[in-house]
Design a protein that fits this description.
two-stranded parallel sheet; globular; Rossmann fold; 3 domains; alpha/beta
């Protein structure tokens, strides 16, 4: 394996490769040379049968194409149809992030990427497409290629602040990966923009260090790297048998959005409705209906309905159910497994049957199915 061990997603895909190897039998792994970020050059004289690689530049492409052994690229930095590749479905990453921000009622959007990297461009395309389909527009910036020095960081900060200042809050922004999301959060702090109230930020990779050591903690699109590792091993196995790879990459869909503080907001510009919504969110574990909302404002029920539809795009009753279901989805995917009855109660449903009915109507699957779909091992082939 000629894979850099200092990349978060590489660590996560290795178990998938090992799962396949155990099922296959007869595989022996070599990780050399004794470095975190090995060059491909040593593969020229290596006596192994095949290799997993992470291609990050055109120089890597040149070396990879000169090798006499089958290789599988597991990265999305550079796209070359002559090199067999298994990678994340980058456009689906963008769409998943867009859906997350749209669900939080944002109407203005931005994308912060990295110039010259294929995965960043693909994530932008997916994000912008979903935003456009919802009837909105997106402001995008392709920032300086990966910052590797203090000078690069200063240039990145300057680019970011110049881009952020003209944006009208509230705005939801996807950063191409978690470290870019960190940079974005810091740039917001420098110019007095609040996260998430003015700018909601979501990254990609669900890197626990980048996400949880940021203030506020970052929401992120979680990858599906164990499955990616399995599929990469399966492809290498086929190549070792003499089969030809497709010119198109094998695309692995992302897992889900892990929501944290950086998107924990609803972008509602009607101040009266925003106040009511905050009260609803603060008491979501309690059983109540629209009648509970009426005393919170001077609006009549008809006025409340009209203002709600204008601000959030749905009736107060439908909106309340959406919030309850979103909370239930989060609880269903937590590692601490609660009973469905407990989850129904914590989300303000009066009974389990009612919870199941509403959840199934909004998600098209039952609560139990949703839990199984998100917790089952993805490499159970």
């Amino acid at each position: 394996m000629a894979l850099p061990l200092d990349v978060v997603f590489v660590e996560r895909l290795l178990p998938g490769i090992l799962d396949f190897a155990r099922n296959q039998g007869g595989w022996v792994f070599t990780q050399i040379p004794e470095r975190l970020t090995p060059s491909f050059e040593w593969l020229r004289n290596w006596e192994g049968d095949g290799a997993f690689v992470l291609i990050g530049s055109q120089a890597d492409v040149k070396v990879a194409r000169s090798l006499d052994i089958p290789i599988v690229n597991v990265g999305g930095y550079v796209r070359d149809e002559r090199i067999p590749t298994v990678t994340l479905d980058q456009q689906m990453v963008g769409r998943l992030a867009a859906e997350h921000l749209l669900a939080r009622r944002f109407r203005r959007f931005g994308y912060y990427g990295v110039r010259g990297l294929w995965y960043s461009e693909q994530r932008r395309i997916g994000f912008e497409s979903a935003i456009r389909e919802a009837g909105y527009v997106c402001s995008s910036i392709g920032g300086t290629t990966l910052a590797r020095s203090a000078r690069d960081l200063r240039r990145v900060a300057g680019e970011l602040t110049r881009w952020l200042r003209p944006l009208q809050p509230p705005v939801g922004i996807l950063a191409s990966w978690d470290l870019r999301a960190q940079m974005l959060s810091e740039a917001c702090r420098m110019i007095g923009l609040r996260v998430p109230e003015d700018v909601a930020i979501i990254g990609v990779d669900n890197d626990p260090i980048a996400c949880e050591f940021c203030i506020p903690q970052l929401s992120s699109v979680s990858r599906n790297d164990r499955e990616l590792g399995w599929q990469a091993a399966s492809l290498l196995s086929q190549l070792l048998e003499g089969k030809r790879a497709s010119k198109l990459p094998i695309l692995i869909p992302p897992d889900r959005v892990v929501a944290r503080q950086s998107t924990d907001v609803l972008a509602i510009e009607d101040a009266e409705i925003a106040t009511i919504v905050q009260q609803i969110r603060d008491h979501l574990n309690q059983v109540f209906g629209v009648e509970r909302m009426l005393p919170l404002s001077i609006l009549s029920r008809r006025q409340l309905e009209q203002r709600f539809r204008r601000s959030v795009g749905s009736s107060p009753y439908a909106f309340l159910n959406e919030l309850r279901v979103e909370r239930a989805k989060m609880l269903l995917t937590e590692s601490r497994k609660r009973t469905l009855t407990r989850i129904a109660s914590e989300c303000g449903f009066s009974e389990l049957r009612r919870f199941r009915t509403v959840f199934s109507r909004l998600t098209k699957v039952s609560p139990g199915e949703y839990r199984r779909n998100h917790l089952k091992p993805t490499t159970n082939h």
